[in-house]
Amino acid sequence: MATMTTLPSGGSTLNIKSRIGMPEFFGTSEASNIYSSAEHLTGPVATPLLEHAGLNQDIKTPIEVLDLACGTGVVSAHLHQILKEHNTQELVKLTCADLSDSQIAHVRRRMQENGWPNTEAVVVDASQSSLPSDNYDVVIIGMALMLIPDSRGAVKECYRMLKPNGCFAVSLWHIEGWIYDVRDALSNLPGSPPWPQDSDELISAWAMGPWHNVRFVKATFQAAGFFCYIFRAFMRCVTDDYWTPEQRAQCMPLIEPALKDFFNKKYGLGQPFTVERTAIMASGRKPAK
Ligand SMILES: C[S@@+](CC[C@H](N)C(=O)[O-])C[C@H]1O[C@@H](n2cnc3c(N)ncnc32)[C@H](O)[C@@H]1O
């Protein structure tokens, strides 16, 4: 059974280079800095994911939640906010897990600064996890499954780690609507270096499989054993994959001024504008024994 809705717009010691999607990037402190400063972009898709996982409701009994490939912890931060509002923080044991030491160090600082109770942060490879079987009521992967090299292995691992009847919920980019303006803004860079022309091409350039395709998501979940419910709801990777070192040296410093110039001309100096980003929210439930 599948239902669809559309959400508008919305350790390093583990051989990090070969096992983290977008090699090297997520292992660096730069990734934590970029991701934490981009939470105005990643935050809006965190709450729908938590709703989709059933974690926005009043929780009545103790549960264990795994925020896998947690990055800088944006989904966990939204979860704690919801739990705090419902006065249920004590009922949830939360594990934040990521393969990147630097992301986990960031989450640990955040845990301390915000006094998150019952929360731990661990370095874990999602596709080969050391975390226990049949243990979690909910496993969440926010905007990361498509970046995990062995993403099918990660789905199977989530099935293993969930308790019977446990819920697996993920968010994935479906349409990156900003690509069109950015493509046009950069079309006059010297030497016309190549750039993805549409959302499918952009996502395919960095995703580890067609995770923006709802049919693929559903089939992969079902193949791993889940009852499946699907809800349909950056640019450095492009320059790394599409440009030569010479093009990077020449054109990287020109990107920001070109974008500013294009947006100011198209939308008016300092004027707000909107771009579409559509996310898939998918969840599956492990069968009850
Ligand atoms: C785009 S960030 C998403 C972070 C966060 N969940 C969010 O919603 O913004 C992707 C994260 O996946 C992590 N990652 C990539 N491959 C991984 C793997 N094999 N196991 C665990 N985490 C992985 C990266 O380190 C990075 O922090």
Automatic annotation (TrEMBL):
GO molecular function, a single term: methyltransferase activity
**InterPro entries, from UniProt?**
Erg6_SMT_methyltransf, Methyltransf_25, SAM-dependent_MTases_sf
Out of the domains of life, which is the source?
Eukaryota
Q: Which keywords does this chain's UniProt record carry?
A: Methyltransferase, Transferase
Q: Residue span of the signal peptide, if any? A: none
Q: Where are the transmembrane segments?
A: none
Q: What is this protein called?
A: Putative UbiE/COQ5 family methyltransferase
**Source species, please?**
Pseudomassariella vexata
Q: What is the lineage of its organism?
A: Eukaryota, Fungi, Dikarya, Ascomycota, Pezizomycotina
